[in-house]
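seq as requested:
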Amino acid sequence: MENIPNHIAIIPDGNRRWAKEHNLKPWEGHEEGAKNLEKLTRYCLKRGVNCLSFWGSSIDNLTKRPLSEKMALLDIYERYFRRLIEGVDIYDNEVKVNVIGRWEEQFPETLKKTIREVIEKSQHFEKKVLNFMLAYSGKDEMIQAVQKIKDELGEKVKITTEIIKENLMTRNIPMVDYVIRTGGEPHLSDGFMMWDIQNAQLYFSEKNFPDFTDEELEKALADYAQRGRRFGK
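struct tokens:
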């Protein structure tokens, strides 16, 4: 039986570098990245991946980059979430869509309305899960979880792995099996899903995200399939 990861998390680095290499504006790189994400999502569904998480933007992406780039990024979100609602992919494949992060604090009301609509229309599905991490930071998620535990359960509560997971933004999704980062920089960023990737396998691609095609993803899946998992044994 083929060894396919149940939950893949993608850090799509390299959109801006791809745009620079092609003499394009940064947001044109994000546009190409969004197109590629659609293709990769369909490929993951076809290959039997049950849960896919995609880091769309960190909090810093939305607060520290130029306003023109931020506005273009929000426009991309609006258009592509609308495509999810009006397309057939999530309905035919019974995909539950989650959006995780501080997007409700950062995004304009029109975009928040669109996101809430796709969440509402997909929440009864159970076969597949697609998670978008937007205005998301792993460090922020962990601090928020610790504060919530303290406020609701008190300082003397016995901390367990179950209590931590129950208070994360990612409480309702499974632990990550495979983290894929594109863009040629072999590191993690901003505590990305730090609790959920504790036992994950890591894969770093030299390709910038718009060039991380189905064929490149298949290489990553083949690499995962031949790895042994010992979990400390």
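Residues 4 and 48 are 7 Å apart (CA to CA).
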